[in-house]
Amino acid sequence: MDKTTALATQILAGIGGEGNILLLQNCMTRVRVEVNDEQRLDLALLKQLPGIKGYIKQGEQHQFIVGPGAAAKVVDAMRTLLSGAPAAAEDSIARNKAQAKQKYSAPMSGALKKLADVFIPLIPAFIASGLITGIINVLKRPDIAGELAVNYPNVLGLLAIFGSAVFAIMNILVGVNAARVFGGSQAMGGVMAGILSSPALAQITLFGEALQPGRGGVIAVLLVVALMCWVEKRLRNWLPESIELILNPLITTLVTASLAIVILQPLGGYISDAIAHGANLAIDKGGLLVGAVLSGLFLPLVLSGLHQGLVPIHVELVQAHGSNPLLPILAMAGVGQVGAALAVLMKTRNARLKKVIKGALPVGILGIGEPLIFGVTLPLGKPFIAACLGGAVGGALISYWKVATVITFGISGLPLALTIVSGKVMLYLAGLVITIAAGFIFTWIMGFNDPEE
Questions:
Q1: How far apart are CA 206 and CA 132, in angstroms?
Q2: pLDDT digits (tens, 9 = 90+) for 281-333
């Protein structure tokens, strides 16, 4: 039995078996489980499993951190073990998904979770786009690859297309995902986003003003698709089954698109402008203080789930200005965890804790901080606070230096340096080193209670 299957088997035993599973899913680093009976859950056993790097509970959901790449493999193995039928297990989970979602008691948490469900599937595309754009920036530098830029311009042209494609269809992707999350037709969600983005809108004058294709960006798309799903569901209940298939999409399109052009797109435009200008103004004028507050408080926001509300802000900043000054600031929060973990590694005598840190440090430097946060600093208490203080130092400097990236979200840590705008890369790297040092120093000074074996 391979390690993945063994860990999947142990997790299934620890959560009480197939009959106790209400929801089973994964994100980039975590196995996420909701159960019917909490009494059947053996958390003490689960936390001690060799492959579990950390544990957190959000709402009714138990989240076990197993690391990047491993989470999807472990969940796939668990689904295979459930009754020996992957498809059947997945269908069972899908049937329970709607019921599980109702367990989120806080309306704000539910709304932010919906936002996350819309944007998180787009992370791979954002990562690819940002890294390709970073590669282009490197290749354009005469001191690095100037000959390539001169002799092979088509290579850079193709790479530019590869890197910008996600932004060309951003609204469509958001429309499709939003329709899925809000319970409507995904194709209709894409159509609504397509209407808002159509270049032909610029040739139409309404109320004495020419319409603006793409105005309001993803904010407008979210508003319009939410309305579309509401209209579609109501018509599904009101129309006779014999004609519902034909009339529902027709009426939904006409009603929603009309309201979108007249009301929702302009409203989305005002909201989008306010978000983009407000964020830039806060960073430009706030300088050191705003950077310190944003980075220092970011991880507590992550623990509460409220960080998901920042996702549309990241997207709007890139759509409106072509760069994102917020992401490099927030990235320092995770970098501070690296410094704190290094200090813990040097001070602790706990062999298991040392093993966890050594396994989590490489991915932490690469921007995936959950194993360090939930497996090391947060359980120890003081190192988590020290890491946040270290992150605040780095965030203040990054804000003061006005470092920005060309990507929306999805990359952090050292890889983010590839996506930093020209002329600011060394400042970002300097901020990264200083943040690690600050997290280390704060943790060394504050100390921690070294856990027994």
A1: 39
A2: 777 777 889 899 999 999 888 776 667 777 778 887 887 777 888 899 999 99
Catalytic residue among 6, 27, 251, 446: 27
For residue 229, indicate whether it is catalytic. no
Q: Could you write out the three-class secondary structure of the chain? A: CCHHHHHHHHHHHHCCCHHHEEEEEECCCEEEEEECCHHHCCHHHHHHCCCCCEEEEECCEEEEECCCCHHHHHHHHHHHHCCCCHHHHHHHHHHHHHHHHCCCCCHHHHHHHHHHHHHHHHHHHHHHHHHHHHHHHHHCCHHHHHHHHHHCHHHHHHHHHHHHHHHHCHHHHHHHHHHHHHCCCHHHHHHHHHHHHCHHHHHCEECCEECCCCCCHHHHHHHHHHHHHHHHHHHHHHCCHHHHHHHHHHHHHHHHHHHHHHHHHHHHHHHHHHHHHHHHHHHHHHHHHHHHHHHHHHHHHHHHCHHHHHHHHHHHHHHHHCCECHHHHHHHHHHHHHHHHHHHHHHCCCHHHHHHHHHHHHHHHCCCCHHHHHHHHHHHCHHHHHHHHHHHHHHHHHHHCCCCECCCCCCCCHHHHHHECCCCHHHHHHHHHHHHHHHHHHHHHHCCCCCCC
Q: What is the pLDDT of residues 211-236, one digit of tens each?
A: 888 888 888 999 999 999 999 999 98
The pTM of this model reads 0.71
Mean pLDDT across the chain, nearest whole number?
A: 83
pLDDT tens for 237-253 read 898 877 888 899 999 99
